[in-house]
Amino acid sequence: MKFSKKIRKNVAAEPESRKWLWLQLGVGVVMTVVVATLYIFDARENQAVSKSQSEHAARHGAISSGAQAVVTNGAPVGVNNTPAPGPAPEGMVWIPGGTFWMGCDACDMPDAAPSHQVAVDGFWMDMTPITNAQFEKFVKATGYNTVAERKPDPKDFPGAQAEKLVPGCAVFTPPSHEVSPDNPYAWWRYVPGASWKNPEGPGSSIKGREDHPVVHIAWEDADAYAKWAGKRLPTEAEFEFAARGGLDRKLYSWGDELKPGGKWMANIYQGSFPSKNTVEDGYGATSPVTAFPPNNFGLYDVAGNVWQWCSDWYRPDYFEKIAAQGVVKNPKGPDSGFDPQEPGVPKRVQKSGSFLCSDQYCERYLVGSRGKGAVDSGASNVGFRTVKSAL
Ligand SMILES: [Ca+2]
Fold first, then answer.
1. Which of 25, 193, 213, 219 could bridge to 202 as Cys pair (CB 3.0-4.6 Å)?
2. 357 neighbors 199 (Cβ within 8 angstroms)
3. Percentage of the chain modeled with pLDDT above 90
4. CA 57 to ligand 1 centroid distance, Å
Protein backbone atom coordinates (compact mmCIF):
# COMPACT_ATOMS: atom_id res chain seq x y z
CA MET A 1 0.00 0.00 0.00
CA LYS A 2 1.40 3.39 -0.96
CA PHE A 3 1.13 6.36 1.32
CA SER A 4 2.08 9.90 0.54
CA LYS A 5 5.37 11.05 1.97
CA LYS A 6 3.64 13.44 4.30
CA ILE A 7 1.33 10.78 5.68
CA ARG A 8 4.15 8.31 6.04
CA LYS A 9 6.20 10.74 8.05
CA ASN A 10 3.37 11.66 10.35
CA VAL A 11 1.86 8.29 11.04
CA ALA A 12 1.73 7.06 14.57
CA ALA A 13 4.98 7.53 16.37
CA GLU A 14 7.21 4.52 16.49
CA PRO A 15 7.39 2.91 18.96
CA GLU A 16 3.78 2.86 20.12
CA SER A 17 4.33 0.76 23.15
CA ARG A 18 2.49 2.59 25.87
CA LYS A 19 2.00 0.19 28.66
CA TRP A 20 -1.43 1.17 29.90
CA LEU A 21 -2.98 0.92 26.49
CA TRP A 22 -1.53 -2.54 26.05
CA LEU A 23 -3.03 -3.54 29.33
CA GLN A 24 -6.41 -2.11 28.38
CA LEU A 25 -6.31 -3.92 25.08
CA GLY A 26 -5.35 -7.19 26.66
CA VAL A 27 -2.23 -9.21 26.71
CA GLY A 28 -1.15 -11.23 23.73
CA VAL A 29 1.14 -14.16 24.15
CA VAL A 30 3.33 -14.67 21.13
CA MET A 31 5.20 -17.61 19.75
CA THR A 32 8.47 -16.49 21.20
CA VAL A 33 10.41 -19.13 19.34
CA VAL A 34 9.36 -17.68 16.01
CA VAL A 35 10.23 -14.16 17.03
CA ALA A 36 13.48 -15.24 18.60
CA THR A 37 14.51 -16.80 15.34
CA LEU A 38 14.06 -13.47 13.62
CA TYR A 39 15.98 -11.66 16.30
CA ILE A 40 19.05 -13.78 16.36
CA PHE A 41 19.60 -13.46 12.66
CA ASP A 42 23.31 -13.05 12.58
CA ALA A 43 24.81 -12.38 9.16
CA ARG A 44 28.33 -12.94 10.40
CA GLU A 45 29.87 -12.21 7.07
CA ASN A 46 28.41 -8.73 6.91
CA GLN A 47 29.39 -8.10 10.50
CA ALA A 48 33.00 -9.00 9.81
CA VAL A 49 33.18 -6.62 6.86
CA SER A 50 31.52 -3.78 8.75
CA LYS A 51 33.67 -4.23 11.79
CA SER A 52 36.84 -4.12 9.80
CA GLN A 53 35.68 -0.90 8.17
CA SER A 54 34.73 0.57 11.53
CA GLU A 55 38.09 -0.19 13.01
CA HIS A 56 39.73 1.35 10.01
CA ALA A 57 37.73 4.53 10.47
CA ALA A 58 38.55 4.65 14.16
CA ARG A 59 42.26 4.34 13.49
CA HIS A 60 42.34 6.87 10.72
CA GLY A 61 40.93 10.16 11.78
CA ALA A 62 37.46 9.26 12.96
CA ILE A 63 37.82 12.25 15.21
CA SER A 64 38.67 14.76 12.57
CA SER A 65 37.98 18.38 12.02
CA GLY A 66 34.74 17.43 10.31
CA ALA A 67 33.27 20.82 11.08
CA GLN A 68 32.37 22.99 8.18
CA ALA A 69 32.74 26.24 10.03
CA VAL A 70 30.56 28.93 8.56
CA VAL A 71 29.17 32.19 9.79
CA THR A 72 25.46 32.59 9.51
CA ASN A 73 23.47 35.49 10.88
CA GLY A 74 26.55 36.64 12.71
CA ALA A 75 26.88 33.47 14.78
CA PRO A 76 29.81 31.16 14.11
CA VAL A 77 28.68 27.61 13.41
CA GLY A 78 31.17 24.86 13.95
CA VAL A 79 32.98 22.64 16.42
CA ASN A 80 34.94 24.26 19.26
CA ASN A 81 38.63 23.64 19.75
CA THR A 82 38.08 22.84 23.41
CA PRO A 83 40.56 20.11 24.33
CA ALA A 84 39.46 17.11 26.35
CA PRO A 85 39.71 18.01 30.05
CA GLY A 86 41.50 14.76 30.86
CA PRO A 87 41.81 11.13 29.87
CA ALA A 88 38.63 9.66 28.40
CA PRO A 89 36.46 7.64 30.77
CA GLU A 90 36.32 4.05 29.52
CA GLY A 91 34.24 3.68 26.37
CA MET A 92 33.61 7.41 26.01
CA VAL A 93 34.75 10.01 23.51
CA TRP A 94 35.23 13.74 23.95
CA ILE A 95 32.65 15.87 22.17
CA PRO A 96 34.22 19.33 22.09
CA GLY A 97 30.99 21.31 21.88
CA GLY A 98 30.20 24.08 19.45
CA THR A 99 27.37 25.82 17.69
CA PHE A 100 25.15 24.09 15.15
CA TRP A 101 21.90 24.18 13.28
CA MET A 102 19.59 21.88 15.21
CA GLY A 103 16.48 20.32 13.70
CA CYS A 104 15.54 19.76 10.09
CA ASP A 105 13.62 21.95 7.68
CA ALA A 106 13.87 19.50 4.79
CA CYS A 107 12.51 16.48 6.68
CA ASP A 108 8.83 17.41 6.38
CA MET A 109 8.41 16.71 10.08
CA PRO A 110 6.68 19.61 11.87
CA ASP A 111 8.16 18.84 15.29
CA ALA A 112 11.72 19.00 13.91
CA ALA A 113 11.26 22.47 12.40
CA PRO A 114 12.35 25.14 12.25
CA SER A 115 16.07 24.48 12.34
CA HIS A 116 17.69 26.90 14.75
CA GLN A 117 21.12 27.65 16.13
CA VAL A 118 22.12 25.99 19.37
CA ALA A 119 25.41 26.06 21.29
CA VAL A 120 26.52 23.21 23.52
CA ASP A 121 29.50 22.92 25.86
CA GLY A 122 31.92 20.02 25.56
CA PHE A 123 31.07 16.69 27.19
CA TRP A 124 31.98 13.01 27.18
CA MET A 125 29.68 10.61 25.37
CA ASP A 126 29.48 6.82 25.24
CA MET A 127 30.99 5.63 21.99
CA THR A 128 28.09 3.19 21.59
CA PRO A 129 24.64 2.57 23.03
CA ILE A 130 24.78 0.66 26.34
CA THR A 131 25.15 -3.02 25.54
CA ASN A 132 23.53 -6.05 27.12
CA ALA A 133 26.87 -6.89 28.74
CA GLN A 134 27.14 -3.42 30.28
CA PHE A 135 23.57 -3.48 31.53
CA GLU A 136 24.08 -6.93 33.01
CA LYS A 137 26.97 -5.58 35.09
CA PHE A 138 24.72 -2.84 36.42
CA VAL A 139 21.97 -5.30 37.34
CA LYS A 140 24.45 -7.67 39.01
CA ALA A 141 25.92 -4.81 41.04
CA THR A 142 22.63 -3.28 42.13
CA GLY A 143 19.87 -5.90 41.81
CA TYR A 144 17.94 -3.33 39.77
CA ASN A 145 14.58 -4.41 38.39
CA THR A 146 13.56 -2.70 35.17
CA VAL A 147 10.07 -1.31 34.64
CA ALA A 148 9.28 -4.20 32.28
CA GLU A 149 10.08 -6.68 35.05
CA ARG A 150 7.79 -5.07 37.62
CA LYS A 151 4.16 -5.96 38.16
CA PRO A 152 2.15 -2.97 36.98
CA ASP A 153 0.51 -1.13 39.88
CA PRO A 154 -3.31 -1.16 39.50
CA LYS A 155 -3.31 2.48 40.66
CA ASP A 156 -1.39 3.43 37.51
CA PHE A 157 -3.75 1.54 35.22
CA PRO A 158 -7.31 2.36 36.21
CA GLY A 159 -9.80 0.18 34.41
CA ALA A 160 -7.36 -2.58 33.51
CA GLN A 161 -8.37 -6.08 34.57
CA ALA A 162 -6.26 -7.39 37.44
CA GLU A 163 -5.26 -10.57 35.60
CA LYS A 164 -3.81 -8.48 32.80
CA LEU A 165 -1.49 -6.57 35.08
CA VAL A 166 1.55 -8.72 34.45
CA PRO A 167 5.16 -7.69 33.86
CA GLY A 168 6.19 -7.54 30.24
CA CYS A 169 7.04 -5.31 27.33
CA ALA A 170 6.25 -4.64 23.67
CA VAL A 171 7.97 -6.91 21.16
CA PHE A 172 8.07 -6.27 17.43
CA THR A 173 6.15 -9.13 15.83
CA PRO A 174 6.01 -8.77 12.07
CA PRO A 175 2.65 -9.64 10.53
CA SER A 176 2.64 -12.20 7.73
CA HIS A 177 0.81 -9.86 5.37
CA GLU A 178 0.91 -6.22 4.37
CA VAL A 179 -0.81 -3.88 6.84
CA SER A 180 -1.44 -0.17 7.05
CA PRO A 181 1.47 1.68 8.64
CA ASP A 182 -0.94 3.75 10.73
CA ASN A 183 -1.82 0.85 13.01
CA PRO A 184 1.20 -0.04 15.16
CA TYR A 185 -0.82 -2.64 17.04
CA ALA A 186 -0.58 -4.79 13.91
CA TRP A 187 3.10 -5.38 14.62
CA TRP A 188 3.62 -4.67 18.31
CA ARG A 189 2.64 -7.30 20.86
CA TYR A 190 2.71 -6.93 24.62
CA VAL A 191 4.62 -10.04 25.65
CA PRO A 192 4.40 -11.13 29.29
CA GLY A 193 7.88 -11.75 30.65
CA ALA A 194 9.67 -9.80 27.91
CA SER A 195 12.46 -7.70 29.37
CA TRP A 196 16.08 -6.75 28.70
CA LYS A 197 17.32 -10.23 29.60
CA ASN A 198 14.48 -12.07 27.80
CA PRO A 199 14.06 -9.78 24.81
CA GLU A 200 11.42 -11.91 23.06
CA GLY A 201 9.87 -13.18 26.28
CA PRO A 202 10.40 -16.34 28.36
CA GLY A 203 12.70 -18.79 26.60
CA SER A 204 14.69 -16.08 24.83
CA SER A 205 17.94 -14.69 26.17
CA ILE A 206 20.73 -12.23 25.42
CA LYS A 207 23.23 -15.04 24.89
CA GLY A 208 25.18 -14.28 21.73
CA ARG A 209 23.91 -10.71 21.86
CA GLU A 210 26.18 -9.40 24.62
CA ASP A 211 27.50 -6.69 22.30
CA HIS A 212 24.06 -5.68 21.06
CA PRO A 213 22.33 -2.68 22.62
CA VAL A 214 20.20 -3.43 25.65
CA VAL A 215 16.48 -3.06 24.85
CA HIS A 216 13.13 -2.88 26.68
CA ILE A 217 14.44 0.11 28.56
CA ALA A 218 11.99 2.64 30.03
CA TRP A 219 13.24 6.15 30.76
CA GLU A 220 13.71 5.59 34.48
CA ASP A 221 15.76 2.44 33.78
CA ALA A 222 18.13 4.45 31.60
CA ASP A 223 18.30 7.20 34.20
CA ALA A 224 19.02 4.69 36.98
CA TYR A 225 21.88 3.13 35.01
CA ALA A 226 23.35 6.56 34.23
CA LYS A 227 23.29 7.59 37.90
CA TRP A 228 24.91 4.32 38.96
CA ALA A 229 27.66 4.90 36.41
CA GLY A 230 28.23 8.49 37.59
CA LYS A 231 26.90 9.77 34.28
CA ARG A 232 23.64 11.15 32.91
CA LEU A 233 21.39 10.95 29.89
CA PRO A 234 22.24 13.38 27.07
CA THR A 235 20.10 16.40 26.39
CA GLU A 236 18.48 16.30 22.98
CA ALA A 237 20.79 19.12 21.86
CA GLU A 238 23.88 17.21 23.02
CA PHE A 239 22.73 14.07 21.25
CA GLU A 240 22.08 15.85 17.98
CA PHE A 241 25.28 17.89 18.10
CA ALA A 242 27.27 14.73 18.74
CA ALA A 243 25.39 12.73 16.09
CA ARG A 244 26.10 15.34 13.44
CA GLY A 245 29.83 14.90 14.00
CA GLY A 246 30.59 18.47 12.93
CA LEU A 247 28.74 18.21 9.62
CA ASP A 248 26.59 21.25 8.99
CA ARG A 249 22.89 20.70 8.21
CA LYS A 250 23.31 17.29 6.61
CA LEU A 251 20.38 14.90 6.37
CA TYR A 252 22.24 12.01 7.97
CA SER A 253 24.98 11.71 10.53
CA TRP A 254 27.35 10.77 7.69
CA GLY A 255 26.24 13.23 4.95
CA ASP A 256 23.37 13.79 2.54
CA GLU A 257 23.29 10.41 0.80
CA LEU A 258 21.44 7.52 2.41
CA LYS A 259 23.75 4.90 0.91
CA PRO A 260 27.08 6.45 -0.07
CA GLY A 261 28.81 4.14 -2.52
CA GLY A 262 25.86 1.75 -2.24
CA LYS A 263 26.75 0.95 1.37
CA TRP A 264 24.28 0.93 4.28
CA MET A 265 25.58 3.22 7.02
CA ALA A 266 23.16 2.25 9.79
CA ASN A 267 20.95 -0.61 10.87
CA ILE A 268 17.54 0.38 9.57
CA TYR A 269 14.70 -1.43 7.76
CA GLN A 270 14.70 -2.39 4.11
CA GLY A 271 11.75 -3.80 2.23
CA SER A 272 8.07 -3.38 2.83
CA PHE A 273 7.41 -2.36 6.44
CA PRO A 274 6.39 -4.17 8.61
CA SER A 275 5.78 -7.49 6.94
CA LYS A 276 8.77 -8.02 4.64
CA ASN A 277 12.23 -7.07 5.83
CA THR A 278 14.71 -7.77 3.05
CA VAL A 279 17.57 -7.30 5.55
CA GLU A 280 19.89 -5.73 2.95
CA ASP A 281 21.99 -4.17 5.71
CA GLY A 282 22.60 -7.60 7.22
CA TYR A 283 20.40 -7.29 10.32
CA GLY A 284 16.72 -8.05 10.81
CA ALA A 285 16.72 -6.82 14.39
CA THR A 286 19.42 -5.32 16.62
CA SER A 287 23.05 -5.45 15.53
CA PRO A 288 26.34 -5.38 17.46
CA VAL A 289 26.92 -1.77 18.47
CA THR A 290 30.03 -1.37 16.30
CA ALA A 291 28.67 -3.14 13.22
CA PHE A 292 28.29 0.08 11.21
CA PRO A 293 30.85 2.85 10.70
CA PRO A 294 31.26 5.56 13.34
CA ASN A 295 30.60 9.22 12.60
CA ASN A 296 33.25 11.95 12.53
CA PHE A 297 33.39 12.08 16.33
CA GLY A 298 33.96 8.33 16.57
CA LEU A 299 30.41 7.61 17.75
CA TYR A 300 28.69 4.41 16.65
CA ASP A 301 24.95 3.88 16.19
CA VAL A 302 23.86 7.50 16.38
CA ALA A 303 21.36 6.49 13.68
CA GLY A 304 19.36 3.26 13.58
CA ASN A 305 19.72 0.08 15.65
CA VAL A 306 17.84 1.33 18.74
CA TRP A 307 16.07 4.47 19.87
CA GLN A 308 18.05 6.24 22.56
CA TRP A 309 16.51 8.19 25.42
CA CYS A 310 17.35 11.83 26.04
CA SER A 311 16.77 13.80 29.23
CA ASP A 312 14.42 16.32 27.57
CA TRP A 313 10.67 16.23 27.84
CA TYR A 314 8.99 16.05 24.43
CA ARG A 315 6.80 18.80 23.03
CA PRO A 316 6.21 19.13 19.28
CA ASP A 317 6.28 22.94 19.49
CA TYR A 318 9.56 23.24 21.41
CA PHE A 319 11.73 24.11 18.42
CA GLU A 320 9.31 26.82 17.35
CA LYS A 321 9.56 28.38 20.79
CA ILE A 322 13.31 28.37 21.18
CA ALA A 323 14.01 29.33 17.57
CA ALA A 324 12.62 32.75 18.41
CA GLN A 325 15.26 33.23 21.13
CA GLY A 326 18.37 33.46 18.97
CA VAL A 327 21.32 31.15 19.64
CA VAL A 328 20.30 29.09 22.65
CA LYS A 329 23.06 27.72 24.85
CA ASN A 330 22.78 24.23 26.37
CA PRO A 331 18.99 23.91 26.04
CA LYS A 332 17.48 21.30 28.34
CA GLY A 333 14.02 20.98 26.81
CA PRO A 334 10.63 22.17 28.01
CA ASP A 335 9.51 21.96 31.64
CA SER A 336 7.06 19.17 30.94
CA GLY A 337 6.07 16.81 28.17
CA PHE A 338 3.04 17.21 25.97
CA ASP A 339 2.06 15.25 22.89
CA PRO A 340 -1.25 16.35 21.37
CA GLN A 341 -1.55 12.90 19.79
CA GLU A 342 -1.76 11.46 23.31
CA PRO A 343 -2.50 14.23 25.80
CA GLY A 344 -1.87 13.17 29.38
CA VAL A 345 0.86 10.67 28.49
CA PRO A 346 4.18 12.17 29.57
CA LYS A 347 6.85 11.58 26.95
CA ARG A 348 10.55 12.23 26.66
CA VAL A 349 12.63 12.65 23.55
CA GLN A 350 14.26 9.68 21.85
CA LYS A 351 16.83 10.05 19.09
CA SER A 352 18.37 7.98 16.29
CA GLY A 353 15.46 5.88 15.03
CA SER A 354 15.76 2.10 15.17
CA PHE A 355 16.14 -1.03 13.08
CA LEU A 356 12.45 -0.60 12.31
CA CYS A 357 12.76 2.79 10.60
CA SER A 358 12.70 2.95 6.82
CA ASP A 359 11.89 5.54 4.20
CA GLN A 360 8.36 4.09 4.20
CA TYR A 361 7.86 4.38 7.91
CA CYS A 362 9.33 6.61 10.59
CA GLU A 363 12.53 7.75 8.80
CA ARG A 364 13.73 9.21 12.06
CA TYR A 365 17.29 8.11 11.51
CA LEU A 366 17.47 11.51 9.81
CA VAL A 367 19.90 13.26 12.11
CA GLY A 368 17.78 16.37 12.66
CA SER A 369 14.55 14.49 13.29
CA ARG A 370 13.05 13.63 16.66
CA GLY A 371 11.37 10.69 18.33
CA LYS A 372 9.33 10.43 21.50
CA GLY A 373 8.42 7.78 24.00
CA ALA A 374 6.06 7.36 26.96
CA VAL A 375 8.35 7.42 29.96
CA ASP A 376 7.00 4.17 31.42
CA SER A 377 7.51 2.16 28.26
CA GLY A 378 10.40 0.48 26.60
CA ALA A 379 10.12 -1.83 23.60
CA SER A 380 12.30 -4.31 21.76
CA ASN A 381 13.91 -1.40 19.90
CA VAL A 382 14.45 1.09 22.73
CA GLY A 383 17.80 1.55 24.48
CA PHE A 384 20.05 4.44 25.51
CA ARG A 385 23.58 5.79 25.91
CA THR A 386 25.00 8.13 28.51
CA VAL A 387 27.11 11.27 28.69
CA LYS A 388 29.28 12.87 31.34
CA SER A 389 29.83 16.57 31.89
CA ALA A 390 33.35 17.91 31.63
CA LEU A 391 33.39 19.33 35.16
CA1 LIG B 1 18.36 -3.76 9.36
1. 193
2. no
3. 75
4. 21
Beta strands in the chain (DSSP E): 70-72, 75-79, 92-95, 98-102, 116-120, 123-126, 168-172, 188-192, 271-272, 276-277, 307-313, 328-329, 347-351, 371-374, 382-383, 387-389
- How many angstroms does the Cα of residue 268 sit away from the middle of ligand 1? 4
Instruction: Identify the CA nearest to 79 among candidates 60, 92, 96.
Output: 96
Compute CA distances 192 → 151, 154, 164, 195, 306, whole Å. Answer: 10, 16, 9, 9, 21
CA 270 – ligand 1 centroid, Å? 7
> In this structure, are residues 274 and 177 in contact, taking their beta carbons and an 8 Å threshold?
no
- Cα(47) to centroid(ligand 1), Å: 12
Confidence at residue 75, expressed as pLDDT on a 0 to 100 scale: 60
pTM of the predicted structure, to 2 decimals: 0.85
The residue-averaged pLDDT of 124-133 equals 98
Cα–Cα distance measured from residue 376 to residue 153, given in angstroms and rounded to the nearest whole number = 12
DSSP-assigned letters across all residues of 104-167: -STT--GGG-S-EEEEE--EEEESSPPBHHHHHHHHHHH----GGGSPPPGGGSTT--GGG---
Instruction: For ligand 1, an ion, list residues with CB under 5 A.
Output: 267, 281, 283, 355
- Report residue 93 CA to chain centroid gap: 18
Ligand 1 centre to CA of 73 (Å) is: 40
SS3 content of the chain, % helix, strand, coil (to 5): 25, 20, 60
pLDDT surpasses 70 at 9: no
Domains along the chain?
49-144+200-334+346-389 (3.90.1580.10)
Distance 171 CA to ligand 1 centre (A): 16
**Ligand 1 mean position, distance from CA 228 (Å):** 31
Give the amino acid at 149. Answer: E
With residue 323 as reference, give the H or E element that holds it.
Answer: helix 318-323
Residue 139 pLDDT? 98
Distance 86 CA to ligand 1 centre (A): 37
How far CA 84 is from CA of 14, 92, 95, 236, in Å, comes to: 36, 11, 8, 21
